[in-house]
Specification:
Layout (H helix, E strand, L loop, with lengths): L1 H12 L7 E6 L2 E6 L11 H14 L4 E6 L2 E4 L2 E10 L7 E9 L8
Parallel strand pairs: 2-3
Antiparallel strand pairs: 1-2, 3-4, 4-5, 5-6
Helix pairs in contact: 1-2
């Protein structure tokens, strides 16, 4: 129960729109699903997701963080942005999925 309260505080601090993103705390894991977006409708940046994960780890030490959202996939160890579709400039009008990868380095060293 206390973990749910802390998770909600972290999400509120980062202005996460909870009408589109659901969270749950079970055992020693925090899991997010849905669409990760801010209350004002703006999108999260990689740095914003990284700050969210770091904040979870500060407030819920020992918990594993996992996000399986439509636009972001992340854990305590990595962040993947599931980008939109873009036109392939090779011709033919094909589309490809754009994915970005960001490593979270030395979270314990961040003070």
């Amino acid at each position: 129960m206390e973990a749910n309260k802390e998770a909600r505080r972290v999400l509120a601090k980062h202005a996460t729109d909870l009408s589109e993103c659901q969270y749950s705390c079970s055992g020693s894991e925090v899991r997010l699903n849905g669409f990760l977006r801010k209350i004002d409708g703006s999108e999260y940046t990689a740095q914003g997701v990284e700050a969210l994960v770091i904040d979870f780890q500060r407030h819920l030490p020992g918990y594993y963080i996992a996000g399986d959202c439509k636009n972001w996939s992340f854990t305590s160890d990595h962040i993947n942005h599931i980008g939109g579709k873009e036109k392939n400039h090779g011709g033919g009008g094909e589309e490809k999925q754009v994915t970005y990868y960001v490593d979270i380095d030395d979270i314990e060293g961040i003070g």
